[in-house]
Amino acid sequence: MIAMILKMTGMALLYTLLTMLLWMRLSGKPLTLARRILVGVIYGICSVLSTHFGVDYGHMLLNLRDIGPLAAGLFFHPLSGIIAGLIGGVERYIAGTYWNIGAYTTIACSASTCLAGIVAAFANVFIFKREKPSGVYAFFMGAVMEVFHMYAVLITHRSDMDMAFYVVRVCAIPMIGFTGLGMAACAVMLKVISKEWRNPFRHRSREELTVSHRFQSWLFGVALVVFIINSGLSFAIQTQSAIQYSREALADVSQDIVQTHAGIQTTQARMEEMVGSLVQTDTRAIVRAVENAGGPQAVDQDFLESWRALYKLESVSLISKEGKLICAAGESPLYIGMMDRLTSHAVDVQSRWLSSQRVVAAARCGDDCLQSVLDAGNVSQTLNQSGLHDILSMFHVGSTGCFDIVSSTGYSIAGAHKNMVFSEWYIARKHLAAGDTFFTATMFDKESLCRVEKLSDGSMLLVLLPLDEVYEERDIQAYESLLGDILLFTVIYLLITLLVRYIVAENLQLVNRSLARITEGDLNETVNVREASEFASLSDDINQTVNALKGYIAAAKKRIEEELEFARTIQDAALPKNFDFPRQDFELFAMMDPAREVGGDFYDFFFIDSNRLAMVIADVAGKGIPAALFMMRSKTAVRGLAGSGITPSEILYEANNILCEGNDAEMFVTVWIGIIDLRTGEMRCANAGHEYPMLMRAGGDYELFKDKHGLALAAMENVRFKEYELKLEPGDRLFVYTDGVPEAIDPQNQQYGTDRLRDKLNALRNAPMTRVLPDVRADVEAFAGGVEQFDDITMLGFVYYGADGRQTP
Amino acid sequence: MTINKQQNGSTLTIAVQGRLDTTTAPDLEKEIKSSLEGVTELIMDFEKLDYISSAGLRVLLSAQKQMSKQGSMKVTNVSDLVMEVFEVTGFTDILTIE
């Protein structure tokens, strides 16, 4: 037993090792047709080797042949499984049919091996969907396959159930167990190698379990309970009926034996009577001869001897009425008492069996008595030879049961233990005395169902049938229905699992896929799963919800758009638009083009007094509404401060501190401010982190004017800004802009840049600003080539004509 | 834009690759805000930064303000183009640029 366990474990480990090695060699490589066939052949060879190196146990050869095709089909490729199954199965058939190896189970074994490959292929494709099965599932696959194997042995030997049952009883548990464990070991090791192993006993929350998983657990539990109850009940019923059947059989046999025994006894009694009469006749004949010879006193020993010899008697004796021996021939004990009986019964002659062998007859011979003894041994022999007693030995109790007719002294008169004394007799007598006709006890070393009956002659009939035989039919039935039920439940279980998966899980996945698309923003996606009314209504509900959401989103979008439009109008209105100045000493034009509805850039210009013009251009970090709000704050602050007549650097200093206050959003704004005295052309400027201005001296080119820079406003409190002076001569031009201009990008992510801007401005050096700005804007747009711009584009152009006003050409 | 974070004790290095503009700045801002806890030195590696817009500057300013409270921040490997933006906007005055 231990040797068997060790050998089987070794074979299972070899399979595990092979599977691990193959997996490691093949992992990461595509499983080409050649590789699939190779894997199939390797496992097929393993299967064949299993057939020829089986483990001898209880006169049977145990093997793990079915692991080959199962492992190939489940862990590698369906085709490999089928190939391995065919190789193992066909070879098994040849080995059984032509080489007489395990010939008894050839059909069952070869069929189950072929089937193992097909089942593995099917399971791989439809149940595990090309994923590696977990250890538990692999165990079940292996175990159930062997259950089928055993069941096949039973159903292919309907006419020879005893042998088939023996095979199954010996092989079932080790083969089912080790095939299952071998498969489980392979599966677990593969999971470990590919780092997918999870502790199956780890508690998993409901969220982690799939519907089909939970369904399977419940189904398995319910099936198990039903299975146990069903098996238990049918086992109990079969036990009852086996006992009932055996009792009836024992009663029938008993009745026959009793009848036959009685018949034999009658026959024997008649025979004995006949022998008795014979001896009586002989004795009377001798008495007459004695009387003829002159009475008892006249005869001698020789006379008696002649008669004894004539009648082949054992002895002939003459006995006086006092009981004394007068004369005798042959050696024989003297049987006293016969005389009294003769007298008292007033008969002339009588006979009596002294034992099974001797008959004595006594006859009155005058006043004396003549006794003759016949050794009836030969008569008994005749009786025996007639087969009368043998008739009883022809009775059979089942195939392993027996019976005995036991005398009151515990001596078997007839039956299996004839002429023997056995101690079991005592047990039987006790039950008989207690009135139990049937009882179960250990008789002749076997637990047996027994029946006792008292016979008319005081002896006892004991009939018994070993429990092995009583329950044999039940055990066969139990094994068969157990194996059959496991197969049936497995098939139902798989069917329901597959149905749940196809009807529920797959449809849920379809719904989920649609939902994922909706989540990604495709609100036009509709869920359309109509496999069942639940899914249809779920689909409809989701579609309605999405439609309702679409409505809300559209409404919200519309509201926001309207509000943004308002905001744009307000922002637009905040920028001065009147470029018609009732004086000739300068020209000014500006424009702001937000990237979105509202922007963070702004420009501003205003007269501080009749001769001093302030110009501002600014860029708030960020875009959209936050930038627009901060822009309004900044514009108000700068204009308010500028109005108080302080210098640009002071304006920026104060504005910075105002904007820093409560700047939780950490916004900042770059500002360039210039205040020009139109009478002299002297201009005081300050730059808080803004782009360099472009300056064109009259008659020259535009150049980037790298002015003194400070930090952007609202970045840090109490920052001092540098101020510089710029003296504009008549004809000088100044162009300020925000980073939306030089940082506009084309499809290759190239920036427009200040060089391009300068060249464009130079090309337009004599054009009025009302043309320069739109042209630059158009050039930037042409450069961008349709690429969406992320920044607001704002420009302000200024031409100084001098205190004398514009020179009319 | 790609953001690479590398934490070494209380030193966090954030390498930014690509364009840091209006569209990508919020991502960087979220990334920085979520990882500044317990950081005493923040290094912004701008070796592969192609462009920074004012929205990007705002993120830097915000990070700088936060880091002045809990440690220090420096900006490294700044390209010429980005450096120009820092200079123009005056950010060279408030950032530690190496």
Structure description:
The complex is a heterodimer of chains A (809) and B (98). Chain A has 809 residues and is α+β, with helices and mostly antiparallel strands. Chain A has four domains: 2-199, Arp2/3 complex 21 kDa subunit ARPC3 (Orthogonal Bundle), CATH 1.10.1760.20; 238-263 and 402-472, PAS domain (Beta-Lactamase, 2-Layer Sandwich), CATH 3.30.450; 272-382, PAS domain (Beta-Lactamase, 2-Layer Sandwich), CATH 3.30.450; 575-800, PPM-type phosphatase domain (Phosphatase 2c, domain 1, 4-Layer Sandwich). Helices cover 54% and strands 17% of the residues of chain A. In chain A, strands 14, 15, 16, 17, 20 and 21 form a six-stranded mixed sheet that branches. The mean pLDDT of chain A is 85. With 98 residues, chain B is an alpha/beta fold. Chain B has one domain: STAS domain (Transcription Regulator spoIIAA), CATH 3.30.750.24. Chain B is built from three helices and five strands, in the order ββαββαβα. In chain B, strands 1, 2, 3, 4 and 5 form a five-stranded mixed sheet that branches. In chain B, a hairpin with a 2-residue loop joins strand 1 and strand 2. In chain B, helix 1 packs parallel to helix 2. The longest helix of chain B has 17 residues, at 54-70. Chain A binds chain B through residues 595, 619-623, 666-668, 670, 688-692, 709-712, 715-716, 719, 739, 743, 749, 751, 790-791, and chain B through 19, 21-23, 25, 50-51, 53-55, 57-58, 61-62, 65, 87-91, 93-94.
